[in-house]
Specification:
By secondary structure, the chain is of the alpha/beta class. It contains 16 helices and 21 strands.
């Protein structure tokens, strides 16, 4: 302690009284400066917090619609209102309600709804609607399939009808939230789904559908639970639209939706679906029978597994008899000649028109209903009880007797036009090369010709409807198409060349020279018919048809044609 007093005394003597005051003031100011610096650096935010100004809703009674999807996918999904096992549901969430926490209601029978990301605004009417039913960008009939493999769900097709859920102003009031949720009633806005693009018109209708044959009209009735927009369509139910000659004889059908007053009463009620299609147009021509009717009917009806009724307009008894096996394989019921029906027939599902693809004799497996030509040919094998699935493989027959090793060649003959004038000589040459040859004419007995064609490995003929019977050939068989003069290249490729590849067939083509056509006996050398067929084509289809299709026969140059048969044998060895 004594030492501290001595130290203070010495320290005090080192400064005058004035210097001591200055030193005290300086120390005090320094302390203040240090304290201010600390306050500036570590200053807390004492203002109002912005989060305190945020509100969940400007209205304590506002409801929000939320789509709850329990599935793993993140894509937008359209859910069929008739599908009860869907993973998607609509929830009604009550916000800012002190009387109830989040209350949830599931609407199992709601119409088809897309998942929306749009903000729901505080407006008097709020609508959630589906996408437009169709894009007419291209044909291929991207319509909804009822195939059991994808029940009620589609990621690339719009729903069957334009459905909406309307929330009226009463739901955006203050008051008891639970009562408002209970009062919410979804309203269906039902509308047919029609595809007017491509090469066919087709409408699919679901609900209270009434078919009146006397007026050629299909009514889509509205009820208190369905609000239908008054609309109408005109459909020609034959799958070759824009071909004026074909469509000229096809009965036009009217489709009326949203009808309440004046609708005919049901005389007959049906528990299965119905398809309305025409047997007019080019029905009776074997090529058009398949590309315009049989294949489109297969694409349209196969999904029902026989539980569908065919309402035929422009009935053709001869056609029905010809394709009775196909009709029985697609429907378990007798056909209805709807044009003669006095009664009004009522269904829950009606399809007016038939599906088809752009190309001839073709099925696009990437488009709904996702069938292929292979599927169609398997269907024909079943309908006609065809046994041979694949063509002969010559390498598998080495060492066997000639009787069993010979591939079968069917030479299609014609009686009137585009006939082989030397069919016997062609058959003789083919036999010498190792073929077993059958010469036959294509007839209207489909069951008989189907068995014959299916038993062969090679089908040969001049361009014409008879070559359509290639649909019955076994897989890996060979089609030989002989082209007359007249510029048939495009027709030959479109009608048979390209389709044969989709059927898993091998295709060979032989184009005759002018000297092999019998037209040289009817027109002088240098005539446009012989030297410039495109000039004849420029005069129109009927001029072309009358000469090259109706006046021409073929006399094959055997030496020139021989390599085609040798190539066929080579392919059968592969």
């Amino acid at each position: 302690m004594g030492e501290k007093v001595i130290y203070d005394t010495i320290f005090a003597r080192s400064f005058s009284r004035y210097d001591q005051k200055k030193l005290g003031y300086g120390a005090f100011l320094g302390c203040l400066l240090i304290a201010f610096s600390f306050c500036t650096v570590f200053k807390p935010y004492l203002g109002p917090l912005q989060v305190l100004n945020m509100r969940l809703s400007m209205d304590s009674g506002l409801k929000m619609l939320r789509m709850k999807d329990s599935s793993s996918t993140s894509m937008r999904i359209i859910v069929d209102d008739e599908t009860s096992n869907s993973n998607s549901q609509i929830e009604m969430v009550v916000a800012n309600d002190t009387t109830s926490s989040n209350q949830t209601i599931s609407f199992n029978n709601l119409p088809l709804l897309p998942v929306l990301n749009d903000t729901i605004r505080n407006s008097s009417v709020m609508e959630i609607s589906s996408n437009p039913p169709f894009s007419s960008a291209d044909d291929n009939n991207d319509v909804r399939s009822n195939n059991s493999e994808t029940p009620g769900i589609s990621n690339d097709i719009a729903p069957i009808s334009d459905l909406s859920v309307t929330v009226v102003n009463d739901m955006i009031n203050h008051g008891n939230s639970s009562q408002q949720v209970r009062d919410f009633v979804p309203v269906k806005n039902v509308k047919p789904m029609c595809d007017m693009g491509g090469r066919t018109d087709i409408c699919e209708l679901n609900g209270d559908i009434r078919v009146n044959g006397k007026s050629s009209t299909v009514f889509m009735a509205s009820t208190s639970s369905t609000q239908g927009e008054n609309s109408s369509w005109i459909i020609s139910p034959y799958a070759r639209k824009r071909d004026e000659e074909a469509m000229r004889t096809v009965t036009k059908w009217s489709i009326k939706s949203g009808v309440i007053d004046g609708i005919p009463q049901c005389n007959q009620n049906h528990k299965v679906a119905a398809i309305i299609f025409s047997l007019a147009g080019y029905a009776g021509n074997n090529f058009h029978d398949y590309t315009d009717i049989v294949i489109p009917l297969y694409l349209t009806a196969r999904q029902f597994n026989g539980q569908v009724k065919f309402l035929v307009t422009n009935k053709n008894p001869w056609w029905i008899s010809k394709f009775q096996h196909v009709l029985r394989a697609l429907s378990n019921y007798e056909l209805i000649d709807i044009d003669k029906e006095e009664n009004t027939h009522c269904f829950e599902t009606v399809i007016v028109g038939l599906r088809r693809n752009l190309k001839e004799l073709n099925i696009d497996p990437s488009k709904p209903p996702y069938h292929s030509m292979k599927d169609f040919r398997e269907f024909l094998r079943s309908a006609y009880s065809l046994k041979k699935h694949t063509a002969i493989k010559m390498k598998d027959n080495i060492g066997k007797t000639r009787r069993f090793a010979a591939p079968r060649l069917l030479l299609l003959s014609r009686r009137r036009t585009r006939a082989f004038t030397n069919a016997n000589e062609i058959a003789k040459m083919a036999r010498k090369l190792g073929f077993k040859v059958i010469v036959a004419e294509a007839t209207s007995d489909v069951a008989k010709i189907a068995q014959l064609v299916n038993s062969c490995d090679v089908l040969m003929g001049v361009h014409g409807a008879g070559l359509t019977n290639m649909v019955f050939l076994p897989e890996n068989a060979i089609l030989i198409q002989v082209l007359p003069i007249g510029g048939f290249e495009w027709l030959a490729k479109t009608d048979f060349g390209e389709p044969s590849k989709d059927m898993k067939l091998r295709y060979l083509e032989y184009k005759i020279q002018t000297e092999e056509s019998t037209l040289i006996q009817q027109f002088p050398p240098g005539h446009d018919v012989l030297s410039n067929p495109y000039a004849i084509q420029a005069k129109g289809w009927y001029e072309f048809k009358s000469i090259y299709l109706q006046k021409q026969n073929v006399n094959l140059d055997l030496n020139r044609f021989r390599p085609i048969l040798l190539k066929a044998l080579e392919l059968l060895h592969q």
